[in-house]
């Protein structure tokens, strides 16, 4: 046996040596074959061999395979500098720029001065820039958010519409069906009064309206007179009467302008569903050419959806050129909380380095004394240990009774999670879902359907975000179906169940399925079983892509601000013996990281000179986010967060934002900062010599061809951004 082993070992070593020699002789094809044979022959996955094969792939321009091997090596040993570099290089080639940046940054944590990484980062930036230049700056001004937003009705809107019609009938005496008197038509008499009305319109509006009324009493079905009177009522500011006339014009005869004008009146009467209905018709009839109608539609919709969320905060959500945005309704002082928000869905971020337990439902930290104090706990005196025992809160997790794979901080959380989503993905009830937890435990790796081992989930965030979204949609559809006494979940049930997630926009340039082709079958297996016959949910390709990018665009990291350590400190401060613990309490506690989708926070647009920052904070007693003013924000001003590292140079910032979020940033920082030393930041004149233009002596981020340009730029806005402290989202 021993001899056989040795023989096999010799064979393996020979394969490795041959591979090395072939590689050195630049015969990458054959070297790759040797390494493949070596990998197939060994049970133990060796990151060194994987990296060697990855290098062969790189030289053969097979970047996808190089990335797969390098990532495999990185998974086995995330502390390998080589793996970080190769992962970064391969992902740069396949245009996964964010991944590349993350890998290079990981590498810099291991070796902060690594020259290869510095060079590769330069290469990455120039790749992003060439992408940016290719796509062109022509797109900069053509962006209009309204084109991306649907006008589909929300489930339940038809009931609300009927309610609004009742209000119109009762309060404003506008009947839902027009009851026009078609008897006694005297066209000649009518025409005389109408002619007078036209003549008087610019001199005496009230008399003109009176004449038009006489015309209509002589010829009630005349739609021209009715529209004329509606227009004049609008001019006079008598909106309800104007609406009454517009209402009396049969639907098929209303032109887009009437629908739009009626929508405006309904908007002013605070009847949003009817207003949406009228603006929708105006948009449709104008063949989507009427941007004002489309914009008004979104403004009404946003107001009705977000007003409940902003109640009690000095902010409101409005729809403008860049879509939804958050605006101050009162002055907000520096350091004040503008609003707090809790996630509609959340999941823990996997951090194999320090795994801090937390409640998987509400994100409360379950940090133990052993995790905080480490080895010091062993060496403490008996009295000190006693202090820890008495004052460290009980953080024993409560497991799901059935699967025992999910932890909670309390029975309340366990029960709530069960009711809202967990029973759909509890492995005890739905065995297929154990795959999800296995993938979580293995950072997205597992055995694929074709029997090979490799990465299955390749997202930047926890796959439980998507799992929890779908599970909660299924649970809600099921609940609605049972409440209605139905045996199958209807289209309306599904639409209502999905409604909370319609608030989040999605943007992505590549297909999530092509990025991780092995994941969709797993989700399909898990969600086809809801434990209820009439509730069948198919994770379609569109659903997978859409939700994947919804999460990508809107997720925010957060963690519980108050941890068991803080509770311990508080209790200790009331204990006279507490002082002896001070020496152990210097380091801040480790946090359990979560990511979540927050409905109001997701409306914050980006600026490179952001005026708010996101901090961890409680919302209704559970961990959420606080949106805090970084400086004084005037009433009416928009609140901006930052999506990126603001310290990057202008062109890199803009290229990143374009690539990841599909917009060219036009914030003051981008407007009044230059990127080319030989181009005047103010007038765009190019330097005729090799010499750069003189730069702003303060911030050194703008170049001017003349003192005149410098002064002009300063006045126009450079002074507001010059030397402003740059910071990313906290
Ligand atoms: C998290 S959302 C912010 C809210 C978004 N405006 C909406 O209507 O849902 C991110 C998206 O908002 C838009 N956006 C954010 N900041 C922007 C800016 N400074 N200029 C143009 N569009 C921006 C982009 O479409 C981006 O993909």
3D structure, described in words:
By secondary structure, the chain is of the alpha+beta class. The chain has four domains: 2-130, Tetratricopeptide repeat domain (Serine Threonine Protein Phosphatase 5, Tetratricopeptide repeat); 149-180 and 220-313, Serine Threonine Protein Phosphatase 5, Tetratricopeptide repeat, CATH 1.25.40.10; 348-558, no CATH class; 650-658 and 666-721, no CATH class. Helices cover 49% and strands 8% of the residues. It contains 29 helices and 14 strands. The strands form five sheets. It has a four-stranded mixed β-sheet. A hairpin with a 5-residue loop joins strand 7 and strand 8. The two termini are 60 Å apart. Bound molecules: S-adenosylmethionine. Residues 145, 322-325, 505, 507, 553-554, 602-603, 605-607, 661-663, 665, 667 line the site of S-adenosylmethionine (SAM). S-adenosylmethionine binds next to strand 2, helix 25 and strand 11. One of its GO terms (molecular function) is histone H4K20 methyltransferase activity. InterPro entries: SET_dom, SET_dom_sf, TPR-like_helical_dom_sf, TPR_rpt, Znf_MYND.
